[in-house]
């Protein structure tokens, strides 16, 4: 059984934010913590130094606004610069991906790269809004949900994958169990 489609550069990285969230602190949570710390430390220290709570609050709020604008600018610049760097190396921005389920392994075939993960090395399978993520030891194999033409095709693929995983891995994969049961 296999799922095939096109994967864009950086798409796996976006999906990995969810993996980080499941295993600790996600990038989104890190940003919230940073803003809260800027407020919690910046306003009292600014008020102490300037003698004005209002001036301290305004300076911290403008710093947060600057941080937000900087993050948007970085995101806006990354796409074109990454496409240019790939083009200079003769690599495509989008690559064909096929994920195959065999009795022995999960096979990830992305253009000129093929990775094989034996089923005992697959430790988790979970769903995000746009992806299915197979955790394979300390790495992740990302399968975009858009690769499936119907919900039934998606369900069949996930049920088949889960059936090949170890019992312990299935126990750590409630999303796959939910799909299999529904």
Write a structural description.
There is one protein chain. Helix content is 54%, strand content 25%. It has 182 residues and is an alpha+beta fold. It is elongated, with a radius of gyration of 22 Å. It starts with a strand and ends with a helix.
In short:
The chain is 54% helix and 25% strand. The chain has six helices and seven strands, in the order βαααββββββααα.
Total number of beta strands: 7
- Oligomeric status: single chain
Indicate the mean pLDDT: 84
Pairing-aware structural class of the strands and helices? alpha+beta
Helix % is 40-55%
Give the amount of beta strand, in percent: 15-25%
Runs with pLDDT <50, length 5+? none
Give me the number of helical elements: 6
Largest sheet: 4 strands, antiparallel
Q: Give the overall shape, derived from the CA principal axes.
A: elongated
Distance between the termini: 20 Å
Q: Can you list the strand order of the major beta sheet?
A: 1-2-3-4
SSE series: EHHHEEEEEEHHH
Tell me the Rg in angstroms.
22 Å
């Amino acid at each position: 059984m296999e799922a095939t489609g096109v994967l864009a550069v950086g798409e796996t990285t976006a999906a990995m934010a969810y993996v980080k969230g499941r295993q600790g602190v996600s990038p989104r949570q890190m940003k919230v913590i940073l803003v809260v710390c800027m407020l919690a430390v910046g306003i009292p220290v600014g008020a102490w130094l300037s003698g004005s709570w209002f001036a301290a609050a305004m300076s911290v709020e403008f710093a947060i606004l600057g941080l937000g604008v900087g993050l948007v600018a970085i995101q806006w610049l990354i796409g074109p610069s990454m496409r240019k760097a790939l083009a200079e190396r003769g690599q495509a921005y989008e690559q064909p991906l096929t994920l195959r389920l065999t009795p022995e392994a999960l096979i990830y075939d992305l253009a000129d790269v093929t990775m094989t993960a034996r089923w005992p090395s697959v430790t988790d399978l979970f769903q995000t809004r746009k992806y299915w993520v197979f955790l394979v030891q300390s790495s992740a194999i990302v399968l975009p949900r858009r690769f499936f033409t119907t919900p039934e095709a998606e369900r069949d693929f996930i049920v088949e994958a889960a059936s090949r995983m170890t019992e312990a891995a299935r126990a750590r994969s409630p999303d796959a169990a939910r799909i299999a049961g529904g």
